[in-house]
Amino acid sequence: MERYDVTIVGGGHNGLVAAAYLARAGLHTLLLERLPHTGGAAVSARTFSGVDALLSRYSYLVSLLPAQICSDLQLRLQLRSRPVASYTPTWRNGRSTGLLVEQDEGSRTADSFRDLTGGDQEYAAWRAFYAEVQQVARLLAPSLTEPLPAQREVAAQLGPTWSWLVEQPLGVELDRRFAVDTVRGVVATDALIGTFASMYDESRLQNRCFLYHLIGNGTGEWRVPVGGMGAVTDALLTAALSAGADVRTGAHVTAVEVDGAGAHTTYSTHDGEHSVDSRLVLSGVAPAVLDDLLGRSSAAPRPAGSQLKLNLLVRRLPRWRSGVDPRQAFAGTVHVAEDFSQLEAAYDAAAAGRLPDPVPGELYCHTLTDPSILAPDLAEQGHQTLTYFGVHTPAGLFANDGAASEQAVDRALAALDAHLEEPIRDCLATDVDGRPCLEAKTPQDIEAALNMPGGHIFHGDLQWPWLAEGSPVETPADRWGAATGVDNVLVCGSGARRGGAVSGIGGHNAAMAALEMLRRA
Question: What are phi and psi of 267, to 5 degrees?
């Protein structure tokens, strides 16, 4: 029987962060990963047969990974800014046009707002709104790697912003702030990535998603990891191994038993079944998966993802009907069919069990920022990678309809084609067997590949990053947002109180709670 201080179940990026912190603190740490490699959703892959292009297959950009974690773990990782924040193609009075927003907003952004809206009022409203959001980010970002603050403290810090950000549906505030449908839609998109909700949903799930997408490192900027998302995992794996953590891949955990004083973890590999005892277990898998491992039932509904992920390799970037330079428009996030009214119509259709038409979503061209993920010959020939993230495509739409996935791809690409001089399919490269370089991932595909229940990329609904009034604060796990209801088991993955996205925050905070607990013992 092997014995460790801590066993970590799941080798995604959060599990690796936790392993690195705990091993650096001198704890005997074991990490078990079901797949033959670490990284979970934060991986790069040569997706297309015979094509030397590394695509960030599931997750794609980095915002919430704190600089503190990069510094603490001495990560050899380069995150590169994109020159353009977003481009949103649309039509006005029969004319193809669009809204271009620079990363560092200047005259080009102001001119684009003026051309689209007919004046300067909407851009002034935009600047005032995001100045307020930036203040929220500066206030809240440092707290993400500290014990959870109390709700009343955060409310006092945020002042009047608290009311519209937390207490009412976000759509109400966007209606008040912005007059133009397209502008309102661009703002709304950050509330919907990985989240199935109307902008007027009383649960304010969309508000929580919006908050997380805009507070990373106090700026909310989404950056491209040089070398692809796999470079993030590689850096974290190096940190964990260098610190002395024992990392085992191909190790499928089948059960976790606890007795109040310790934990017993059973896992299987190619050569049979194994067991390990430890003082604590940290879980990087989804809470629903952890419930199964613990053999306990849960009253919580099963998570259900709501995204359509497309990975493409094109021989050239397509031309836009609006005449905007493709290398500029594709350099940031491209919002497709994401006017506010289109987003709400898509939600209504999906909630009624119908596939939206058009399917709204966002495109990212990583190679314009980081050409290193392409073989030199492909880069010289003008090839580019494109990643599409469709919203309001819940798992239920694909559950009993074998043709729904293909239909969703067709509608997503048609929405993009409406603004292009040439169909995007005409620009696709082909693999070694002559097949178009296009890969689609529904929530069911993500669940099958990554064991994320329902294909939910956050492992479940996001939670406010503070303690609600009356919440327990008796244990380190409570204070750090890592409690599972089992004394010896902490959650360190995306299902943690401040989980979601590629941040490492869940791993950091569970490690801090574990260190407090073991030092007290």
Answer: -145, 160
Give the helix/strand (H/E) hosting 269: strand 263-269
- Whole-angstrom distance, CA of residue 236 vs CA of residue 133: 30
pLDDT digits (tens, 9 = 90+) for 277-328: 999 999 999 999 999 999 999 878 889 999 999 999 999 999 999 999 999 9
Question: CB-hemisphere CA count at 13 Å for 265?
Answer: 29
Q: Where are the domains of the chain?
A: 2-41+229-302+456-520
Under the banding of pLDDT at 50, 70 and 90, the label for residue 401 is: confident
> Architecture of 2-41+229-302+456-520 per CATH?
3-Layer(bba) Sandwich (3.50)
Stated pTM of the model: 0.97
Q: Token pair for residue 95?
A: 């004319």
Which distant-in-sequence residues (6+ apart) come within 8 Å of 337 by Cβ?
346, 358, 359, 360, 361, 415
Residue 1 pLDDT greater than 80, yes or no:
no
Beta-bridge mates of residue 99 = 88
User: Would you state the structure tokens that stand for residue 274, as one six-digit string?
Assistant: 């194994």
- C-beta of residue 223 within 8 angstroms of C-beta of residue 56: no
Number of Cβ atoms within 10 Å of the Cβ of 396: 17
Mean pLDDT of the chain: 96
